[in-house]
Amino acid sequence: MTFTNLPLRYIEEHPRYLDLFLTHGLSPELGLDALALDTFSPEWHKKTARIFHDAGLTCAVHLPFFDLRPGSLDHMIRKASRERLLQAVDTARIYDPVHFIAHLDYNSVIYSHFEEAWLENSLRTWEMVLDQTADTPLYLENVFELSPDHHVRVLRGLSDKAGACLDVGHWHCFAKGRKRQNLAEWLAALAPFRLHLHLHDNDGESDAHLGLGQGTIPWDQLWCGLAGRKASATFEPHTEAAFLATQDYLRAHAPML
């Protein structure tokens, strides 16, 4: 199944995006950030959820990530991060999501000398989140991770109760994937786990969230690497032009997702 990203705040700030989703019949992966949690009432969320469900669209939810540190060594930062994530899960239930996405948030610049403490704290945070998500899958996404190693350690530590969200754009730029050409290694490392994909393009230098085919990501390598494997996906264009480019790419290439 495929989704397209839609920050919930865009529905208020840029109403045309809601019309775009309804017109094209796009199932949204809804970005639930701090603004959407602190500004929009439960009634607003219920009304918005009804709009999608009445249109026959399936929702997923991307949990907050700005300024959150799920594995922080500072207990006060860790406590605030956990409270925000659990608050978001509670609100997200209104949308009856088929999955949750959250950022793993391992950064070697910060945690390289404290990996074991980070791992212990992270595992406890995600266990708390999983206790609240019930049977709804949770996928942990790569951002600044330079290898899949920390995903593997966390997912194994969670006894495979969570899955991996491989953000191919983040791999290409932040993990230096364009230079290292190691997409096959990431796919192999994450093969034991349930997989969701975040798909957007870039030039390997910045996280531009271009449409597929507008950058230099080796998409053919991804499709080949996924052959015979079941994975859901979310397209993450950040502009209407990038959205249209992705639609054109999909019509021309029709990858099996």
Can you put this structure into words, describing what you see?
With 257 residues, the chain is α/β, with parallel strands linked by helices. It has a single domain, classed as TIM Barrel, CATH 3.20.20. The chain has 13 helices and eight strands. α5 (75-92) links the parallel β3 (60-62) and β4. α5 runs parallel beside α7.
How would the blueprint of this fold be written?
Blueprint: E1 2-7, H1 8-13, H2 16-24, E2 28-31, H3 34-39, H4 42-54, E3 60-62, H5 75-92, E4 100-103, H6 108-111, H7 115-133, E5 138-141, H8 149-157, E6 163-167, H9 168-173, H10 177-180, H11 183-190, E7 195-199, H12 219-225, E8 232-235, H13 240-253
Parallel strand pairs: 1-2, 1-8, 2-3, 3-4, 4-5, 5-6, 6-7, 7-8
Provide a compact summary of the structure.
The protein contains 13 helices and eight strands.
CATH architecture identity: Alpha-Beta Barrel
Radius of gyration: 18 Å
* Largest sheet geometry: 8 strands, parallel, barrel
Shape: globular
Strand order of the largest sheet: 1-2-3-4-5-6-7-8
Fourth CATH level, the homologous superfamily: Divalent-metal-dependent TIM barrel enzymes
Q: What is the number of helices?
A: 13
CATH class: Alpha Beta
Q: Measure the end-to-end span.
A: 7 Å
Number of strands: 8
Q: Please identify the structural class as seen in this structure.
A: alpha/beta
* β-sheet strand percentage: 5-15%
Q: In terms of per-residue confidence, which ranges show pLDDT below 50 for 5 or more consecutive residues?
A: none
Give the overall average pLDDT.
96
Domain unit count: 1
Order of helices and strands: EHHEHHEHEHHEHEHHHEHEH
**What name is given to the CATH topology?**
TIM Barrel
Helix share, percent: 40-55%
